[in-house]
Amino acid sequence: MKISISIYCLLLVCIISCQGQSISVGPNVYMNPDESVIGKRVQLPPSFHRSKPDDDTFAYFLQNFPLKPHRSKVYYYNGEPKHTQNAHLAVLDIDTGKRDLQQCADAVIRLRAEYLFQQARYDEIAFHFTNGFLAEYSRWRNGERIKVDGNTVSWYNASKKDERMESFQKYLVMVFSYAGTLSLNKELNPISIDELQIGDVFIQGGSPGHAVIVVDLAVHEDTGEKIFLIAQSYMPAQDIHIIKKNRNFVYGPWYSVKEITESLRTPEWTFYPKDLKRF
What we know:
This protein starts with a helix and ends with a strand. Strand 5 and strand 6 form a beta hairpin. It is built from seven helices and 15 strands. The chain is globular. It is an alpha+beta fold.
């Protein structure tokens, strides 16, 4: 006796359900291709609601960050496409620069600095170099510049006050040149995985180390379970992109705090709950 395809599929679903297994759904069905910001491009699983941060916060800045068109490729700083194009969901609409500088920690620094600049909180834009030197944008903005001589770094007066975006970008290039995961890891404050928020950073300081940043968050309306999206740059310097989940698609592209009690495995790195930190 022949069984129709539709009946066969129904029987297969019933068998899986009876065995207590869940059916995973890939990430693509969660995408809203026409939406242009992070907090709207990726849809939510049932019964989850998005975090709604105040509009002057770093969380709001990230959740509403503009994206390049759907299915955009990730490119290296030199204009060449990344060797793998199957590990990202979306690409942030922000430049990478023309040098191999804006890598993982630098991308986190870039987003944080851009937010503070937008908020005119210039005195808070300050990042340590790996050797401990504090590069304060307020000093750069007032006309001082940084001299690097071996492991000796110092300020010197070079020009008049310069508030232009072009000058700010030159400051960031200087920071990218001498900061990294080692220095950023020391600047951030460790937090519990249960306290995870948009803007938090999973980071391992090292040579190489790696860092990714939480750019969106949702909470289950009944259980309080948190799910989130993370973004990264990598080596060589490349477009900042939202990472695609590489296993267990129960929530599509969303990572779940419940799933990472032991580790957070991304397509290109493995982090641990102790690696979660905050500005």
